[in-house]
Amino acid sequence: MNDLPRWDLASIYTDIDSNEFRNDMKSIVAHSEDIANLLDNRDKKTLFVDLLIQIITSYEVMLDTFETLNAFTQALLTVDTTDKKAMQGVHDVSEIGLLVHSNHVKFVSFLADNKDEVYASIKDHPYLNQYHYVLTELINEKLHMMSFAEEALAADLVRSGAEAFSRLHEAITSTSSIVVDQKSGEKKSANELRALAFHEEREVRKEAYYNELELWKSQETPLSYALNGVKGAAISLYTKRNYTDPLENALIQSRIDRGTLDAMICAIEDNLSVFHRYFRAKAHHLGLEVLSFYDLFAPIGSVDTTFSFSDASRIITKEFSSFHPAMGAFAKSAFANNWIDAPSVYGKVGGAYCTSFPLRKETRILCNYDGSFDAVSTVAHELGHAYHDYITKDESALLRHYPMTLAETASIFSQFIVFKGLLEKSSKNESIALIEGFIQDASQTCLDILSRFYFEREVFERRAMGELSGEEFCEIMKDSQLKTYQDALNSDELHPYMWAVKGHYYSVDLPFYNFPYAFGQLFSLGLYTEYEKHKEGFSEKFDALLNYTGKDEAAKVTLSASCDITTDKFWTESIGVIRSYVDQFCSLVGYEG
Questions:
Q1: Residue by residue, what is the 3-state secondary structure of 345-377?
Q2: Alpha carbon distance 433, 303 (integer Å)
Q3: What percent of the chain is predicted at pLDDT more than 70?
Q4: Any alpha helices (H) in 125-201, and if so which ranges?
Q5: Separation CA 330–CA 383 (nearest Å)
Q6: What angle do CA 285, 422, 577 make, to 5 degrees?
Q7: Beta 186-189 vs 177-181: how paired, if at all?
Q8: Phi, psi of 370, deg, nearest 5
Q9: How far apart are CA 446 and CA 407, in angstroms?
Q10: CA distance 160 to 144
Q11: Which whole-number Å values give the CA distances from 303 to 283, 299, 413, 422, 434, in the listed order?
């Protein structure tokens, strides 16, 4: 794969030491002082509505500046976790972030202390009316806020403590390796070993699986201390901020209620047999009595092509355009302007992500491209995120930031477009591979996510009573996987160290980061069902939905596209799309169970 591009960040900043970067760092200080002056020295002659607009304007510019600076330094560090200059940049930006947090606390307190005037201003002023939901959300945040001094101390301690645990996890997982051949001394990293889970030979997958478990065992102590630190800090903060539990915080961040989450979880639990049937059909096709964890990603069928990166560009642009010409044009521009960092290299983090630079109204994508269809699908997924940001780029900061539950809408929808497009032109063998790949992804975002939800819920409950050992984390993870996969997987060969693999657990500010992925998967499938029913004018409706995602609660946003996420019926019908492909897969591989 010699044609893999590295991303071009020059239009964001030329360097951490550039005048532009440093000036933007200084501008955060200036905006901070401006906001503090407006809040602390309120001019009684200034109408409240005018004062509120001034504060919001300065606050949003500060947010956009900080997000751009933070995204840039994180982008540098994630392509090379050994880059000392990038590490310093991340530190400097996180330090200036304390000012942003301080002003956020002051702004929320100001809104809450003057809520009657805020609501009157929202009602009477057309510009402020669009902020009704987000300002109400901020006013309610005051109910879960400590004193100003306590919040300032908490922000500093999270930056220097809990976030350091997250960086430790990132560093360990991106640089750890293990000797896999005693004779040659050959080593493989965790990312390389996990990539072998997709190998066609079972013995290779099995050996990689056991090597990976051994690698994680060797890092069990620092990672278990890190996870204890993150979860312990989260429990202390959420208790002090008067949350019932960390899940309440996650629900507020996701802009859904417990009833909606319960409806989705129950729908998945009631339909576990759909996914279990797929696992049994896959085992049947592979000639196995039952799958082991290292068989989950075993290839079945084949797409008779290794996709070059230019192939990926052509396919994605074509399929996006067939759905929505504007979406295709956006993808073409992203490829042409080197917005994607594609190769897998030492020191680069695994997986993939999309990051936004609001000051420049641009995005960038990191992936580890290997030429497989799955890699093409991953790029399509991340470009969906980028298109979502493109649609919202002209919105102000408070109206642009959408919750995690809706963040996967465009990305999974985009994946599904590419999948459907290729499936229409595929041979039987290719159809098996494509359909299996789709169900495999759906199983991960529903079943595996469910096991991770169970795991995190149990960890929070037990961490509140004391620290947990690495062995206990493994025990909880295995129990969670057994509860989810049941007898569809070999109970002796699960993955007890998945808590070490997934970086999502190591963020103090994002408890239960997992369930929004299941939400995104199933909501996107439900949305696609609506598209198939009413294709005319749907692309415009799709853009309007994406633009609405940061402005209201999730139930109202999704209802604008005729999707009622508060009902079991919606989630069950979405799983019905997955069921239809499981049926096709079973038919193609001759499984009648």
A1: CCCCCCCCEEEEECCCCEEEEECCCCCCHHHHH
A2: 6
A3: 99
A4: 126-129, 132-141, 148-157, 163-175, 190-195
A5: 9
A6: 65
A7: antiparallel
A8: -125, 5
A9: 16
A10: 22
A11: 20, 10, 21, 10, 8
Closest CA to 16 of 69, 66, 65: 69
Quote the DSSP letter at residue 296: T
Predicted local distance difference test score (pLDDT) of residue 304: 65
Identify the pLDDT of residue 525.
95
DSSP letters spanning 481-518: HHHHHGGGB-TTS--TTHHHH-GGGG-TT-TT-SHHHH
Q: Which two tokens stand for residue 204?
A: 């290779």
Mean pLDDT of 463-489: 97
Q: How many CB atoms lie within 10 A of CB 419?
A: 21
The contacts found for 166-170 with CB under 8 angstroms, 24 or more apart, are 166/226, 166/230, 166/503, 166/506, 166/507, 166/508, 167/90, 168/222, 168/226, 169/223, 169/226, 169/227, 169/503, 169/506, 170/78, 170/81, 170/349, 170/503, 170/506
Hey, CA dihedral for 425, 430, 436, 437, is it positive or negative? negative
Mean model confidence pLDDT for the chain: 93
Domains of the chain: 19-156 (1.20.140.70), 220-303+426-535+544-593 (1.10.1370.20)
From residue 252, alpha-carbon distances to 141, 230, 335, 395, 484 in Å are: 9, 20, 36, 22, 26
Q: Which amino acid is at 13?
A: Y
pLDDT score of 86? 95
pLDDT in tens, 507-525: 888 889 889 999 999 999 9
Q: Are 506 and 166 in contact (CB under 8 A)?
A: yes
Query: Both ends of the chain: CA-CA distance in Å?
Result: 41
Do 425 and 361 contact (CB within 8 A), yes or no? no
